């Protein structure tokens, strides 16, 4: 009798694990999202690393970013304090590559009167690769001319639901005349994987 009971319990556990694996983040319907959260106690945090290049080319048409607002005093500010710019810049595996794997979409506001520093609110939207359809959200401070900048990853959608981590970037390319620039971006963060889902821990978009 004990062996039968153990066999039944094992079968139930296997069935439950299988059902958990069916709730993939690609399904973003309200019912699927709710089911994902009900299964969240079984999720395992996975350290994930992404590497790509964010392009902000403003010398071409259409430009990747455009200013949309500024204060009356911005024109007289040495740091352009108060200038708000909207961004829709492609993400690629290499500088100037046409192999677009997503877009950085959001706002950056020159928010310091002492130095060139911006408040950034950007969603990184992935349109290719195994994380296609997922997003990561960043909210933080970017000191424009610092050698390395660090900012928090505060959340995400799809495969990156409840993601938490840190992004760093360096300037890979800057044309001070045209205003074009390319950032070398590295993300390190934890995402949550339900039992039965893939468990790969990184995607290096630098590889073709």
Automatic annotation (TrEMBL):
<keyword id="KW-0732">Signal</keyword>
<keyword id="KW-0052">Apoplast</keyword>
<dbReference type="GO" id="GO:0009699">
    <property type="term" value="P:phenylpropanoid biosynthetic process"/>
</dbReference>
<dbReference type="InterPro" id="IPR004265">
    <property type="entry name" value="Dirigent"/>
</dbReference>
<protein>
    <recommendedName>
        <fullName>Dirigent protein</fullName>
    </recommendedName>
</protein>
<comment type="subunit">
    <text>Homodimer.</text>
</comment>
<dbReference type="Pfam" id="PF03018">
    <property type="entry name" value="Dirigent"/>
</dbReference>
<feature type="signal peptide">
    <location>
        <begin position="1"/>
        <end position="23"/>
    </location>
</feature>
<comment type="similarity">
    <text>Belongs to the plant dirigent protein family.</text>
</comment>
<dbReference type="GO" id="GO:0048046">
    <property type="term" value="C:apoplast"/>
</dbReference>
<comment type="function">
    <text>Dirigent proteins impart stereoselectivity on the phenoxy radical-coupling reaction, yielding optically active lignans from two molecules of coniferyl alcohol in the biosynthesis of lignans, flavonolignans, and alkaloids and thus plays a central role in plant secondary metabolism.</text>
</comment>
<dbReference type="InterPro" id="IPR044859">
    <property type="entry name" value="Allene_oxi_cyc_Dirigent"/>
</dbReference>
<keyword id="KW-0964">Secreted</keyword>
